[in-house]
Here is the input.
Amino acid sequence: MATKGKKYNEIRELVDPKKSYTVDEAIKLIEETKSAKFDETVEVSVKLGIDPRHANQQIRAGLVLPHGIGKDITVLVFAKGEKEKEAQNAGADYVGLEDLIDKISKENWLDFDVSIATPDVMSTVAKLGKVLGPRGLMPTPKVGTVTFDIEQAVKEAKAGKIEVKNDKGGVVHAPIGKVSFGSDKLRDNFLVFMESLTKMKPTSSKGTFVRKITLANTMGPGVKVDFVNVREVLKGFQVAA
Here is the structure.
């Protein structure tokens, strides 16, 4: 059985696994528990009071965080005609249709983070469903990646738009930035995420929606966040300039 290293154990002692911390305490601990030489990603995990077996209780939406997620996003656009030019002008990395579909299907080429498509080409793009779907790369109206407003979609993707989606256990996982962002930007991103998530509660979901919140950096332990404090902080929350 593998054991954790001495450094991890020292960091782990900084976090009380039985305690739920305030927003500011949790963000501070995320910075204090950084241990890797690379810039660690900060991720939030939220256990929701939903039944993922029911389609009307699924959570899936796109969200742009105020300070991005600290990653260069490679964007592919499936389009034709004038929309190809619009995508290129907006800064898409790859633009096309049949040529890109062939490259993906025949070469298993997947060197992009987000794919966007106009509605009129989705019947053609649909043939990639078995390849892109399991990898979360298939364009979908639910997160705004099937749209005629290509310019806006590309800009949002480049800004680090994230997909908010529950897993089979009713948990949502999402990156909210890098440790190097500092406490103010991480706090902003976390609060915008939580504010947006709470508004996604399905009408068919009864009882407590947010059951448990955990923050963690790539190499560190999970830090529980007190949702009561989150709600209090959100009452007077404004994104820092």
Remarks:
- The radius of gyration is 20 Å.
